Amino acid sequence: MTTRKFEFWLVQIPGWLLLAYLTYAQAIPAFNYELGVRMGTQESAEQITEVGTAFWYGFAFADLVIYIPLLAAGLIGHWRNRPWTKVALGAALGITLYWPVVVLAAAVDARDASGWAIDEAPFWVVLPIILLWALWCLWKIACSCRTAAKSNPDH
Fold first, then answer.
1. Domain annotation covers residue 123
2. Using CA atoms in the order 81, 9, 40, 23, what is the torsion angle rounded to 10 degrees?
3. Are 29 and 96 in contact (CB under 8 A)?
4. Burial 23-55 (b: 16+ CB within 10 A, else e)
5. Measuring CA to CA, which residue among 26, 57, 20, 52 is closest to residue 39?
6. Residue 15, domain extent
7. Predicted confidence band at 147 (pLDDT cuts at 50, 70, 90)?
8. pLDDT 10s digits, 50-86
9. Whose C-alpha in 4, 24, 107, 118 is 20 to 30 A from the C-alpha of 149?
10. Is 7 in a helix, a strand, or coil?
11. Cα dihedral sign for 72, 74, 78, 83?
12. Do 63 and 19 form a contact (C-beta atoms < 8 A)?
């Protein structure tokens, strides 16, 4: 049995926690948005308007069909040290970089919009941490690709 490096666990543990959260907070509301509102994982139309709920639902649906499967495949491949992991996990991490920026930018831009009434403080606590984790993971993947390329100059 091989010993796993600390860096391996810095990808796996937060990754699986994020995947569990996404499954709970996004996959369930993709089937029933109002259930997500009752669960406290989605905002109601009274807080973010009907248009806001349509966009939030769009994110939930895209997470269900694209992001969650990519992240799951990437984490499993990373665990099993499969060569395709860099692509699947890299794609999922790209999404992980993208969506916190979108949510924070929308929250800032909509602060004074009619019908927008959310507490954005929790977003500012959690989303930068997620973004930094994804950035670090992508950097580690890029470094491992560069190391692999140096050890195999024919490719």
1. yes
2. 10
3. no
4. eebbbbbbeebeebbeeebbbbbeebbeebbee
5. 26
6. 6-151
7. low
8. 999 999 999 999 999 999 999 999 999 999 999 999 9
9. 4
10. helix
11. positive
12. no
Prediction pTM value: 0.89
Count how many domains the chain has.
1
Question: Which of these, 121, 105, 126, lies nearest to 55 by C-alpha position?
Answer: 105
C-alpha–C-alpha distance, residues 155 and 147, integer Å: 12
Residue 44 falls inside a structural domain: yes
Token pair recorded at residue 112: 């004074």
SS (H, E, C) 69-131: HHHHHHHHHHHHCCCCHHHHHHHHHHHHHHHHHHHHHHHHHCCCCCCCCCCCHHHHHHHHHHH
Query: What share of residues in the chain are helix, strand, coil (percent, to 5)?
Result: 80, 0, 20
* 127 Cβ neighbours under 8 A, 6+ residues apart: 100, 103, 104
DSSP annotation of 3 = P
